[in-house]
Amino acid sequence: MHYGVGSNVSFLLSTALSIGIIGLMHFFKPIIVDSPSLTIFGGFSSSVLFVFVLTAINNLENVLFGDGFEANFIPEVVLALGAALSVAGTIHGVCVTTGFAFSAIALYYLHSLSQKRYGGAPFVYSSMKKKK
I want to staple 50 with a disulfide (CB 3.0 to 4.6 A). Which of 69, 84, 96, 101 is the partner? Predict the structure, then answer.
């Protein structure tokens, strides 16, 4: 059973949502800067932006290189994180710090969700015992 949309539609949706988040963050910048709790929310918003940018990058790669193309830490995750934190930096410095922390948490959950959904190579514990 297949759920969701194709890579091309997902690319367009995640790109549109990324642009929307950037626009909203800049529109509400004066309000975000005035409140310490809202600067933390700005960091959370940048982590949501990170997820959408990473989704857009990976879906673009799936469209260009074929389904099953996997996002790696370098360059896709680093590029998406850099883009999201750059936007957060234009809002407030605290948004960068909290955005990095929230993005790391989001990346952990994205990875665990991906492992559950698509599987992966099982981690094998090896012992260092010497044979006699």
Answer: 84
